[in-house]
Amino acid sequence: MPLTQDQITRFLRSVHPYDALPPDALPDLAASFDVWEVEKDFAVYDLGEKLAGLFIVYEGVIEVRDENDVVVSHLGLRNSFGERGLLRNGMAVTSARAEEHALLLVLPAAKFRALIAEHEPARRFFDRSRSARKASSNDLATSRVDSFMARTPVSVVPDTSVGDAARLMRGKGISSLCIMQGTALSGILTSGDLVGKVLAEARPLDTPVSDVMSPNPISLPPTAIGSDVLHVMMERGIGHVPIVEAGRLIGIVTQTDLTRVQAVSSAELVAEIANARTAQDMAKVTARIPQLLVQLVAGGNRHEIVTRLITDVADTATRRLLAIAEDELGPPPVPYLWLACGSQGRQEQTGVSDQDNCLILDDSATDDMRTGYFAKLAQIVSDGLDTIGYFYCPGDMMATNARWCQPLAVWRQYFKGWIDTPNPEAQMLASVMFDLRPIGGTFDLFADLQEDTLKAASANSIFVAHMTGNSLGHQPPLGLLRGLATIRSGEHKNQLDMKHNGVVPVVDLGRLYALQGQLAETNTRARLKAAQSAQVLSSSGAADLLDAYDLIAQTRLEHQARQITAGEKPDNFLSPAALSDFERSHLRDAFVVVKSLQSAIGHGKGMLG
């Protein structure tokens, strides 16, 4: 059916980013669109074909396949496609076919480029790299108030006596009370008011707080930043600022909160842990890691910076626990090396981390040393890590397991056996152990082992093939409904697993590229960049995968930060409903990129993307 310009204009108003354009820009833009009416099985474009423009689905369903002819997406109403090729060189990087009769809006390539150049909302929307999102320093002045305010402030009604108010403040360990008249904030009572207006004036304890409170206190919205609070406090000479949203009290910021915010930095936590005397002392420090995560994310820091800083805290804690163990047990009888694997090994820890570690001993170590001194050392360190919040590994991948506390010669045998006989257990163990990173001890024990293992592994095509197949076990959550497939049942029904179906598929790809190129890096992003430099991964493939990984990892971190801010325990399960259409569209595209790279290696086309 033909579409009028008015119909196209109304439709665009319901699609992001066009709904964010100036109203007077839409009619001219609508006039730029062509309308394609296509029948079932019509080839909209083929792989490598010059693209006519940007496509938007007005009606019907479009099937998109990657370069290996694997279906990566089914697109329906309001979904757009073709932008990846347009933003690269104008050639299609996928193929698209109509699954049924469809109406497509087509914005010619030249008009698409003009749209991006002229309108910031469009430029942001089609910037899959998030390059527009500049990292800023994580300081009080630029952090949003809702990332550090005290939530659910304690309140009382106006006729509460000052005696009861004082006892409540003492019991709660707080310095202020909000005075509420129904749902409205009518005043604030501080410890200074009790001293200056009650004690100093010898008022009776049954005096209502309404007589001594500061009425109609100045408040700020949750979108305010730290500098706003500082300026208000200095200008008004006050130490408490209520946070109000739509007339509703949602928090309060005190001078104590500001001091706490300024103290929560990775450097501060590292310094405190380095001087801690016990695991219990360290636990008080690591309890502030969630707040550190929130502040780093709120400050605009990129995911790899946030996870690196958080991992630095774990590394310092591990080395401090090793020192505590040596103080208790005496000097080690032979050189040793403590290594981490998993997220700590890759320097990718977030707000949810267990411990994965092992010990490599000098070959002069005896069985008595291994089961005696080093078993005790492992127990002290692993117990300490559990105490401070890095819970025991469910799979027992810890140095406390005798299997993972062995001389260097045994470790060489382990890796040789996994490479020579890549059964399912060997594939799983190799995947974990290829992420090993030295933390404390004699680092020389690992250098030759890593180099020799990478050389032997990359030369064994059967092992590489098995590792490739094993890595494909984690698939991006792509499905028919709006391009995202959620968990179907259980506790996390209708949610996305942003760990196992989000970041892990990229982690697996990075490990494969490192294996192929004999790359020593363990961090996923560093592996992808090193693979590009070593020409294991093409420049275009690396650019796409890095952008996709950044978006997925950043979305996961922001989800955890929101949970912590809301007083919840952070996890990896995200409801698509919590995302805007804009965010879902980007996330879907990122998963499509990962799926395409998986498809390439799964079809035996090597590692080049």
Number of strands: 21
Coarse shape: flat
Helix count from the secondary structure assignment = 24
Distance between the termini: 40 Å
In the sheet with the most strands, the strands line up as 1-8-3-6
Radius of gyration from the alpha-carbon trace, in angstroms: 29 Å
* Helix content class: 40-55%
Provide the CATH architecture of the largest domain: 2-Layer Sandwich
Binned strand content: 5-15%
Report the top-level CATH class of the largest domain. Alpha Beta
Largest sheet: 4 strands, antiparallel
Commentary on this structure:
By secondary structure, this protein is of the alpha+beta class. The protein folds into 4 domains: 5-130, Jelly Rolls, CATH 2.60.120.10; 145-256, CBS-domain (Roll), CATH 3.10.580.10; 273-459, Beta Polymerase, domain 2 (2-Layer Sandwich), CATH 3.30.460; 465-603, Up-down Bundle (Four Helix Bundle (Hemerythrin (Met), subunit A)). Helix content is 46%, strand content 15%. The protein has 24 helices and 21 strands. The strands form 6 sheets. The protein has a 4-stranded antiparallel sheet. Strands 2-7-4-5 form a 4-stranded antiparallel sheet, with helices on one face. Strands 10-11-12-13 form a 4-stranded mixed sheet. Strand 14 and strand 15 form a beta hairpin. Helix 10 packs parallel to helix 13, helix 18 (424-433) packs across helix 20 (461-471) and helix 23 (539-565) crosses helix 24. The two termini are 40 Å apart. Mean pLDDT is 88; it is low at 130-138. Pfam families: CBS, cNMP_binding, DUF294, DUF294_C. Residues 149-207, 213-269 form the CBS domain. Residues 17-124 form the Cyclic nucleotide-binding domain.
